[in-house]
Amino acid sequence: MACVLCVAIAVKRPDVHEGDSNYRVDNMVNTLEIEPSAIKKDWHARGFSCGIWIDHSGHAWIDDLYDTDKLFMAISGDLEIEIAGRRIRPRIGEEILISASVPHAVRNVGNRTARWLYGQRSPSSNS
């Protein structure tokens, strides 16, 4: 099972810097706000769709399972992802790759609305 987790979870921190048009820092809540259009362009170039999801505090998506690889990126709020039984708390802007057929859950564990990007690899891009 540990070997499956090594393959199932990959985290990437985008190369964004203060002053870039891809994000702004909200000093009131100390979060990194990423411009979704830049991520969408990158994900599409890599064969993934890209959409924005908004969840209220306390909402959870439990036991999701897809037959294609899936990307996830928190863009605001406090989220927890459980992948094959392992819980992680991604930072704003961290990209998570969830391999096909790996069960996972996404929970808004914060006290405010959370926003996140999600994408699935198109069937023609699967390798």
Summarize the model shown.
This protein is mainly β and 127 residues long.
From the helix content, strand content and strand pairing, which structural class follows? Answer: mainly beta
Average pLDDT over all residues? 76
Order of strands side by side in the largest beta sheet?
Answer: 1-9-6-11-4
For the largest beta-sheet, the strand count, sense and barrel status come to: 5 strands, antiparallel
Instruction: Report the radius of gyration as a whole number of Å.
Output: 14 Å
**Helicity, in percent?**
10-25%
Low-confidence stretches: 1-31
Q: What portion of the residues fall into strands of 2 or more residues?
A: 35-45%
Series of H and E elements:
HEEEHEEEEEEEE
Please tell me what the overall shape is: globular
**Kindly, what is the distance between the CA atoms of the first and last residues, rounded to a whole number of angstroms?**
22 Å
Q: Kindly state the number of beta strands.
A: 11
Total count of helical runs of at least 4 residues:
2
